[in-house]
């Protein structure tokens, strides 16, 4: 979207229209600022240090927890096999 640096205000023929255009532009600026604020809040939420640290810790813990689970399963299945052999 290309923005023109020169604005065309030829359609304004009265002070009422000028006031309306000023109000419209003011609302347009406020809306743009709110959209920017919302995007910044979403960005900060996605890349917050606590959330990022939690995600990294969870990803690093998956292999460790998997190996612990496997050892427990092997221990339990080994114990049941020993009971069957007796």
Output the keywords.
80% helix; rod-shaped; 86 residues; mainly alpha
Q: What's a concise summary of this model?
A:
With 86 residues, the chain is an all-alpha fold. It has two helices and no strands. Helix content is 80%, strand content 0%.
Tell me what you see in this structure:
The protein is an all-alpha fold and 86 residues long. The mean pLDDT is 84. It is 80% helix and 0% strand. It has 2 helices and no strands.
Write the layout of secondary structure elements.
Blueprint: H1 15-46, H2 49-85
Strand content: under 5%
> Which percent bin holds the helix content?
over 70%
Count the beta strands: 0
Number of helices: 2
User: How would you state the average pLDDT, rounded?
Assistant: 84
Distance between the terminal alpha carbons, to the nearest Å?
80 Å
The string of secondary-structure elements, in order, is: HH
- Largest sheet features: none
């Amino acid at each position: 979207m290309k923005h023109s640096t020169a604005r065309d205000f030829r359609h304004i023929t009265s002070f009422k229209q000028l006031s309306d255009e000023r109000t419209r532009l003011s609302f347009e600026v406020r809306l743009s600022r709110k959209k920017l604020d919302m995007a910044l809040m979403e960005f900060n939420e996605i890349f917050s240090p606590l959330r990022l640290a939690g995600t990294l810790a969870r990803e690093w813990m998956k292999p460790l927890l998997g190996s612990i689970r496997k050892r427990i399963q092997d221990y339990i299945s080994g114990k049941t096999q020993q009971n069957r052999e007796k």
